[in-house]
Design goal:
The chain is α+β, with helices and mostly antiparallel strands. It is built from 25 helices and 18 strands. It has a five-stranded antiparallel sheet, with helices on one face. Strands 13-15-16-14 form a four-stranded antiparallel sheet, sandwiched between helices. The chain has a three-stranded antiparallel sheet with strand order 4-6-5. InterPro entries: DALR_anticod-bd, Gly-tRNA-synth_bsu, Gly-tRNA-synth_heterodimer.
């Protein structure tokens, strides 16, 4: 039959409603599996005032089982006269048998006493209450609460518990509330309370009589569809981000989607401020026209069917108006002062106690942006100008009220001040990429400023020994490192991490206490490389083969990784990797200095002479390949050595008694190894 459990509560936290419901279902499935109960699909339901599960085709009886209880080893169960020891008698007594009735089992560790107990399966209704209790006790609740005079704790006060197996009420007490057939409906519509006769009636009876849509995904789908329809009536498109959709779906039990408007004069305020107000404070959906411009309308979701929807609409318009007016006031006030004139105020904002103020940081970013711009061929003066102004919007009224607009507000104010579009864009894009998959800065100047902003933080925090530990990374150094690497790699910028870290650290003067700051930054970023490329699906030994050379230019690192990955698809790859391993093993055991030049007079005709000849030709041919980072082409050329190398090892003894010939052959192998090491350590594949 179908089993239903519903826990009726006060309003649950909307941002964690889905997580609670899914965890409840997963925990209960675990309990069913532990009890060996066969069942069909487990469905979960969640609304602001309830968590519920419905288990289809749940067996009415637990299957019989056998429990094997192993006792002491036979050697410890009997004394020298063959009499049972106290340990054996105590174990047998616990099993309800005598020692004579015990079985014996043979294992690889000897013979043991054993007893197989047949356990009859219990009726499922006797098990369900405890299973629900256990499933609820394991919910991810960071701050449980108590209510009334009860000692029990839960995420919110609980008022009803309903457990039905088919049409049978499952007895039991959960959270100090007895199981009952009573279910509560919507606060303001439908029946406030009603009884449910059969588990199969849920959730339809709740929707029909209680005016509550318990199906979370159904509510979300209704909101999304109706919001899109409302936006289409305005010839626009609603901003239906999934996070906000989820939150709104968790706030209502009977969604009714309505459209309202605000005065067009507010559109003179930066759209981002209005959007953050509507989405963040009010949980409204902004509407954009087909050109992406904000419309003076918003879509909201009510939790009630009103006889006069216009009253609800007017109420929401009245609520949002003062908030938009605040945004307008902040912006108008901010316009009265130039962005550059705010720089002195940054002296009052601390970046980090040991590292100084945000103004100090802005001055460092200015210098570092110019340094990077010069390296990548961007406009140095524009980059320095943008770097200097990067943090000035942090002391504006708008950013103080809406922290999410930092950078964005800087762009608006920079343009109002007459700064170039490149400078304004760089101020906004200094924080990109903000997260995995985010867009990169759009111009070379923006790239320089973004790298500088992140690198300054890395240099400062590593410079005072505040390295990330475990999952603790308060300054988001991992994200900053990945951001720098992404920009350099994806934009193919010729930048060296050691050079960048040295310059960034030098700008702090004597403030840094960690003498190994440059090495720490480079090692940390190379560690991010490993994780980043693994996530992209590159083989770990491919990454290690490149890391073995310790390349410090990210774009160069990327070219090597892709070259080695392509090399592995060639038929010669496996054989050459083995040959490189052999060469590496031979050379690692040599304790004398190997000559740099090969003595042609000591070469034997045949495979040895052929290998030497090919290495001379390839050394000359591949020199421009390596200087131009054409590593893939270089490895393709090197793959032609397969037959020659195999023939050499098949017929030539390297470690001969004649020292001159031995050293000459070692020099030959060293030259072979060095050609491959121009790309990666192939011996690690």
């Amino acid at each position: 039959k179908t089993f239903l459990v519903e826990i009726g509560t006060e309003e649950l936290p909307p941002k964690s409603l889905r997580t609670l419901a899914e965890s409840f279902a997963a925990n209960f499935i675990q309990q069913l599996d532990n009890a060996n109960l066969e069942h069909g699909e487990v469905l979960w339901y969640a609304s602001p005032r309830r968590l519920a599960l419905k288990v289809l085709n749940l067996n009415d009886t637990q299957p019989d089982s056998q429990i094997v209880k192993r006792g002491p080893a036979v050697s410890a169960a009997f004394d020298a006269n063959g009499n049972a020891t106290k340990a054996a008698e105590g174990w047998a007594r616990g099993c309800g048998i005598t020692v004579d009735q015990a079985e014996r089992i043979q294992t690889d560790k000897g013979e043991w006493l054993s007893y197989t107990q047949n356990q009859k399966g219990q009726p499922v209704v006797n098990l369900l209450c405890d299973m629900v209790k256990t499933a609820l006790s394991k919910l991810p609740i960071p701050k449980p609460m108590r209510w009334a005079a009860r000692q029990v704790e839960f995420i919110r006060p609980c008022h009803t518990v309903t457990m039905l197996y088919g049409n049978e009420l499952v007895p039991g007490t959960i959270l100090e509330i007895k199981s009952d057939r009573i279910i509560r409906g919507h606060r303001f519509m439908g029946e406030q309370e009603f009884t449910i006769d059969n588990a199969d009636q849920y959730p339809e009876i709740l929707e029909q009589r209680g005016k509550v849509i318990a199906d979370y995904d159904k509510r979300k789908s209704i909101i999304k569809q109706q919001a899109e329809e409302e936006a289409a009536k305005l010839n626009g498109k609603a901003d239906l981000t999934d996070n906000l959709l989820e939150e709104v779906s968790s706030l209502v039990e009977w969604p009714v989607v309505l459209t309202a408007k605000f005065e067009e004069r507010f559109l003179e305020v930066p759209a981002e401020s209005l959007v953050y107000t509507m989405k963040g404070d009010q949980k409204y959906f902004p509407v954009y026209d087909k050109q992406g411009k904000l419309l003076p309308n918003f879509i909201f979701v009510a939790n009630i069917e009103s006889k006069d929807p216009q009253v609800v609409i007017s109420g929401n318009e009245k609520v949002v108006r003062p908030r938009l007016a605040d945004a307008e006031f902040f912006y108008q006030t901010d316009l009265k002062q130039r962005l550059e004139d705010r720089l002195p105020r940054l002296e009052t904002v601390l970046f980090q106690q040991q590292l100084g103020t945000v103004k100090d940081k802005a001055i460092r970013i200015e210098s570092l942006s110019g340094f990077i711009a010069d390296k990548i061929g961007a406009d140095v003066e524009q980059a320095k100008r943008a770097g200097k102004l990067t943090k000035c919007d942090l002391v504006t009224n708008t950013v103080f009220e809406f922290p999410e607009t930092q950078g964005i507000m800087g762009r608006y104010l920079a343009l109002k001040d007459g700064e170039s579009i490149e400078v304004a864009t760089a101020i906004e894009e200094q924080y990109k990429p903000r997260f995995a998959g985010d867009e990169l800065p759009s111009t070379a100047i923006s790239c320089a400023v973004s790298i500088a902003e992140k690198l300054d933080t890395l240099a400062g925090i590593f410079g005072i020994g505040q390295h990330p530990k475990g999952d603790k990374d308060p300054f988001a150094l991992r994200r900053a490192a990945i951001g720098v690497l992404r920009i350099i790699v994806e934009e193919a910028l010729s930048l060296d991490l050691v050079e960048l870290a040295n310059y960034a650290a030098s700008l702090y003067g004597g403030k840094l206490t960690n003498k190994n700051v440059v090495d720490d930054i480079v090692n940390f970023m190379q560690g991010r490389f490993r994780a980043w490329y693994q996530e992209q699906g590159f083989a770990i030994d491919t990454i290690q083969a490149v890391l073995a050379l310790n390349p410090t230019k990210p774009a160069d690192f990327d070219a090597r990784i892709k070259a080695v990955t392509h090399f592995r698809t060639l038929p010669e790859a496996s054989s050459l990797a083995e040959a490189n391993k052999r060469v590496s093993n031979i050379l690692s055991k040599v304790e004398v200095t190997i000559p740099e030049q090969i003595n042609a007079a000591l070469l034997e005709a045949g495979p040895e002479g052929e290998l030497a000849k090919k290495l001379v030709i390839l050394t000359d041919k591949l020199s421009p390949y390596f200087s131009e980072s054409r590593y893939q082409d270089a490895l393709i050329e090197l793959s032609s050595l397969k037959e020659t190398v195999n023939a050499f090892f098949d017929s030539v003894m390297v470690m001969v008694d004649n020292e001159d010939i031995r050293l000459n052959r070692l020099a030959l192998l060293k030259k072979l190894q060095n050609l491959f090491l121009k790309v990666a350590d192939i011996s690690l594949l």
